[in-house]
């Protein structure tokens, strides 16, 4: 159980779904009767079929649209250019994002991540700087009814994605090499940032996706009385018909149950929401 994907596949294979339906929908066995290596590539196991056809092609894409994980990026190595009218285009290299894609940009700040440690308190550089961020200091000042001796750096929230890891900051005359940004990153293939307590909910989502896929793929051959693997599909017609509403259930479960799970698994987003909910002096 290294990540929610492996957990979900393991649990779905032990669900109340006929093994015969798994074979029909996902397996692509190849005896390699011709003896060439290419046929081996075409062989697909049930586990691989669920991973590719359900999780990667459907669920992961939905998760990246409705979720993502919040991260702070140092934009110091990014290419910046003014495109006029107070707009600056930022091209973030893959080295900065570790090969992942940026879904959206929440905020951009003047100052690198190293300086942001002292300004925003978004990280800890060393023992001397621990707790010395402006957010912590302003909180202490509010409690003590004193004015802080640091000021928040200018923040730009009007940002729009225009390409692959490319976005535009509006209201900024010219970019600087010392900038940092708060962005929403796409999930990795294993959704490793999802909290372990939400693994069962993800497994339920995958099971609904599997049932919807089985119904969509096998409903037409059933009506044609096709025969696969020596068994007439009409013999399992009732089993397939039980999954008729699986797609509607998938969409409903995704919005009402899984989206909140993704939100609470994004710790940085939760912390920021809690911080914004604390009363501040004006």
**How much strand content do the residues show?**
15-25%
- Cα-atom Rg, whole angstroms? 25 Å
How would you sum up the major sheet? 4 strands, antiparallel
SS-derived structural category: alpha+beta
> Ends: how far apart?
48 Å
What is the average of the pLDDT values?
78
Strands, total number: 10
Order of SSEs: HHHHEEEHEHHEEEEHEEHHH
Q: Strand arrangement, largest sheet? A: 1-8-4-5
Helix count equals 11
Give a verbal description of the structure.
The chain is of the alpha+beta class. Helix content is 44%, strand content 17%. The strands form 3 sheets. The chain has a 4-stranded antiparallel sheet with strand order 1-8-4-5. Strands 2-3-7-6 form a 4-stranded antiparallel sheet, with no helix packed on it. The protein has a two-stranded antiparallel ribbon with strand order 9-10. Strand 6 and strand 7 (166-170) form a beta hairpin. The chain is elongated. The two termini are 48 Å apart.
Outline of the structure:
The chain is built from 11 helices and 10 strands. It has 282 residues and is an alpha+beta fold. The strands form 3 sheets. A 4-stranded antiparallel β-sheet has the order 1-8-4-5. The chain has a 4-stranded antiparallel β-sheet with strand order 2-3-7-6, with no helix packed on it.
